[in-house]
Write a structure and sequence with these properties.
heterodimer; A: alpha+beta; 4-stranded antiparallel β-sheet; 10 strands; B: mainly alpha
């Protein structure tokens, strides 16, 4: 009984250590600038055991502005890893050392991995920014001059070059109608129809 | 595909993903101490685990609690190691022991739920209802767990009934293997 208790206490103590300085989104203690540094920095994450390879995209038609808003949530570490794998720099998003050209790299990545065809016509995607969402980054892309939506054919290749089990969920909300598709390496394209 | 199906699939895939083996190893460790004729206890244990992770998954996804991902990822292998050690050590025996086991499975479930939630929360926005995603994700997890229990029981059947391995040896073998995996996870997490 006793040695077990001691062992558990030791393990919990050693576990508690590295937590200070974690949670990049929340930490940001003012004035403690140069301290931890390498917490997320070097090398590829060695054999991650606990993995959840999913992105979720919300596609919403803004009728008043005739615009399709696509908000894609991607795990920040995966997104950065994918951009590095393409020969880009490490963006260090949502840290003090974030890369100056981060928007361009994220924009290039997204627009090369997503394609939309609305009512049978290929449409241009425009990157409109990103924001921190805890472990994920919410990236916004838009399609303008969308006057009506009957069918959307979508191609989503986000992170499938990185992870065999990557799932890319897409949630469409068009004029009150909700549809879902779950895309992956096996199925990169999906079609959704709206209206009567 | 409906929203329910999408998240059910994500939950099932997550728990049964061989790359995310920490939950699988935990469930195997939970089952190891029980001989085949005590399958009811195993079902109760797995259910207690599910109740635990459903609670924290809901609380954390609704942003009522927030635990750093790094801490959770360290605690998960601790729960596996603790389960393995107790399988061998048997600190709790008798009727009291059984209740304690269910309580611990529930408690460990709370920790695993934080692990699921840190991922789900990051991906779900606050702008829409998360009741359906949460519920269906949980049901998917539960179905995945039951599949793992079934496969493990089939392997146990071969050893315990066909090959005549004494259950004590089987428990030592499985718990030892799971403890080794959790030790590697602990080292990796730090």
């Amino acid at each position: 009984m006793k040695p077990l208790g001691v062992l558990l206490c030791l393990m919990i103590l050693s576990a508690a250590e590295p937590v200070s300085g974690a949670t990049p989104g929340l930490a940001a203690v003012p004035g403690s600038g140069p301290a931890p540094g390498p917490s997320t920095a070097p090398g590829p994450a060695a054999a991650p055991a606990h993995v959840f390879y999913v992105s979720i995209a919300r596609v919403k038609w803004n009728v008043d502005d005739a615009r399709l808003d696509v908000s894609v949530r991607i795990f920040t570490d995966d997104l950065e890893e994918a951009i590095v794998a393409e020969g880009g720099p490490r963006l260090r998003l949502w840290t003090d050392q974030a890369h100056a050209d981060r928007d361009r790299y994220v924009s290039d990545y997204l627009t090369s991995r997503l394609a939309f065809r609305i009512n049978g016509a290929d449409r241009q995607l425009t990157y409109a920014g990103m924001e921190d969402a805890l472990d994920a980054t919410a990236c916004l892309v838009q399609i303008t001059d969308v006057e009506s939506v009957d069918t959307i054919e979508v191609e989503n290749r986000i992170l499938i070059e990185m992870f065999d089990t990557q799932a890319n969920v897409m949630r469409f909300e068009i004029g009150g109608e909700k549809k879902f598709v779950n895309l992956s390496k096996k199925t990169v394209t999906g079609t959704v129809r709206f209206g009567p | 595909m409906s929203e329910f199906q999408v998240y059910l699939q994500l939950g099932f895939d997550h728990i049964s993903d061989l790359n995310a083996y920490d939950h699988i190893v935990f469930i195997i460790a939970l089952c190891a101490a029980y001989p085949l004729n005590r399958w009811r206890s195993v079902i109760l244990l797995v259910t207690a685990f599910t109740v635990g992770h459903s609670i924290t998954l809901a609380l954390a996804t609704l942003r009522l609690i927030l635990v750093p991902t790094d801490l959770v990822e360290t605690l998960i292998p601790v729960t596996i190691l603790a389960t393995c050690l107790m399988n061998v050590w048997r600190p709790f025996e008798g009727k009291f022991g059984r209740k304690t086991s269910y309580g611990l499975a529930l408690f460990f479930g709370l920790i695993h739920g934080l692990g699921f939630s840190n991922y789900l929360r990051a991906l779900l926005g606050m702008e829409e209802s998360i009741v359906v995603p949460l519920l269906s994700f949980n049901i998917g997890l539960e179905l995945g767990q039951l599949m793992i229990v079934a496969i493990f029981a089939a392997v146990a059947l071969v050893f315990l009934r066909l090959l005549g391995t004494p259950h004590r040896h089987w428990n030592l073998f499985v718990s030892g293997a799971a403890a080794g995996v959790s030790a590697m996870l602990l080292i990796g997490a730090n």
